[in-house]
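Hello forum,

I keep getting stuck at the same step: I have a sequence, I want structure tokens, and every attempt I make locally crashes halfway through. Rather than fight my setup again tonight, could one of you with a working pipeline run this one for me? It's a single chain of 633 residues.
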Amino acid sequence: MTETRICYRVDLLGPLHVERNGHRLEPGPAKQRAVLALLALRLGDSVPVGEVEEAVWGAVVPPSARSLVHTYVARLRQVLEPEYPPRRRVRVIASTVSGYSLRAETAETDVARFRRYVSQAEKRIGEGDREGAFDLLGQALNLWRSPNIGELRSLLHDNIEVEALSAAWVATAHTYVGLGLRLGRSAAVLDTATRLARLEPLHEAIQADYLAVLGSSGHRTVALHRYAEVDQRLRTELGVDPGEELRAVHRVLVRPPGRPPVPRPAPVIPAARRRAARVSIAGRLRWRAEEVADLVRLLAKHRAVTVAGAPGCGKSAVALRAAQQAARVFTGGTLMVNTLDLRDRRQLERRLARMLGGDGAEDPVELLSGRPTLLVLDNAEHMVDACAVVADRLLVACPGVAVLTSSRQSLGLPYERVQRLHPLPVPQPGGWPSVLSNPAVALLAERATQVRPGFRLDRRDAEVAVEICRRLDGLPLALEMAAACLSTESLDGVLRKLNGPLEELRPPGSSELRHPSLRAMLDRSVQRLDVIERCLFHRIALLPGVFDLAAVQRSWQPHPSGPIDVRVVLAALVDKSLVMPVGQTGGRYRMLGLLRRMAVEVSIAEATPRPAPEVSVPLVRPLLAAGKAGALE
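Reply #2:
Ran it on my machine without issues. Output:
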């Protein structure tokens, strides 16, 4: 006998609504509803219990949260599958290794349908079928019973996926209104344009579309009044004049009847402010596509994400490319802050305030409140504590804000997710011509063609290039430095430079660069170490290529500083990307060859006796007279 298929429907784009074969079900009290809402939002995915706890209770998770989650799931299963005994109620909410999953085979959600319609519309736009795309976007927007998804926001605390869903409505509605204007369907999109304009009162591109819709649907007077309101708010709240897109629409509205219209400019990319920093990505990252995709997926699930890795492995480029791809989720824009020239928390907060349109004295928390914004903190390793404090304040106070950090070490926040970036793989010698497709060799060759047009690797040159890549540990920034040297050197000449001190690998014109030499690039990491960390770093540099904790402990004995917990110091070096774990099981480590060489060079330099500095008598006497002899120590 064939079993009747039971269909479940969970609607989230408005008040939570659950149906079974067309009959409404009551999912229970608030926290139980929150569990179901989260599983429905992640339909088909396994949601770990820890993420359920964080979404339902927020920052303060009670000790009984885990058992309560299991209880809520059991009760939801009873509501959804009352005819089955408890152990067989797994057809809708399945148990996974780490948590639970709402099965896509038996349940459907309005969120999934919305995303499907939008995806199909994007495909139609790519094919040039604007009419078809317009109809699909209309169907997608009709699923939303409440654009602010108030109940979903109240059920799931500070959930970035809820904010991303809200931002998706804004982006979809904006595209729908823009298509309506181009297709001459202004009347059809007027309601959507009105709701969108109310939701984003300071978004100039959205306001420009709204004015254009009003004007072309016969509401010219209303449009002129609206322009005056927007103009006043921009000047009062942000201190800026209306942008060119708004002014262009205004010129059309005030033009006397009978004059030909001025073509409407193409929509601009949404941004928090025209003065906000724009993300610019230099270079191509085809060999980092997987890492970029992983980072974008992390940003979709977590509000604090850090990409960490060894010096020169390309953290900034990967972080900025991921931010560029994730920008469509954040309607408030992407704010990129290079912290390299900053010294403390106050400087960082002042820069943020200025980038957000203030004069530097305002609190960035107030300026970012209510604005879904992705904040990128680049090169944060030299002021990790300051960045951690600022990021924590923003993430706690501004639910729509996410923080992506590039740093050689993590910020240390309890809710932070860290993605480790490793050097590019390097090939073994030989293997011609397959070595040409190796990422490190290909990057070196690509950058070489930029400084020496027509550059090509033959079999003999490829062997030299492989050796250069191996000496440079596959670090992209080091490879780019080596390639820059090819404007005046041969490949053999570059390889000879690598036989000498690291300071010699210095591209032409490098005095203008952030890292004038290979040694300078590596030195910044070691300068941030304390005395004990620095000492252990130098001792590890003398160990074999791959080593374990026991070898590190033996290298420390004896030492004038006395006994220390080597595990703690080794963990600090791993966190600062100066030591790398080997394999997935842990217990073994390695240090990049370039870092070993630098440690040896520093040790030799520090062991070399230096002449005492000469101090003139006229300088010493005033200091002694003022009681400041200690200043000479």
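The two ends are 94 Å apart (CA to CA). If your local run keeps crashing, start a new thread with the error log.
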